Amino acid sequence: MKVLLQRVSRAQVSVDGRVVGSIDAGLLLLVGIGHGDGADQLEWMAHKVVNLRVFADADGKMNRSVLDAGGGVLAVSQFTLYADSSKGNRPSYIDAAPPEQAVALYEQFCTLLETKLAKPVARGVFGAHMHVELVNDGPVTIMLER
Question: Are the CB atoms for 62 and 106 separated by under 8 Å?
Fold first, then answer.
């Protein structure tokens, strides 16, 4: 499982010109599900995301989590995180989980986040052509892998 985490001032995702998910300050998560991912990877990643200290404390140090800061979370499925471009000019996505497996795990991951945050997680639409807009705060961008 791979998650590209970005601390944002705001973010939104649109499908066919309609906003389907948006947040103010918080985390934008681009979520990739790989072959062999399951409950262990989902649990580890959800715990890591909600507890990762990337928000400033009173001294301006990154010492607070999204849970501490009360920020929002927008999760967008992104199989292209599994792109292998080591050969040729066309990326291979062979390491990404098939859509029927990945959609279930993506939804489970979002549900785990909602449980840990005790609030809804904004989402994209799995498999749709999406437009993601964000204002990266910092910028802070961290790749998480499990």
Answer: no
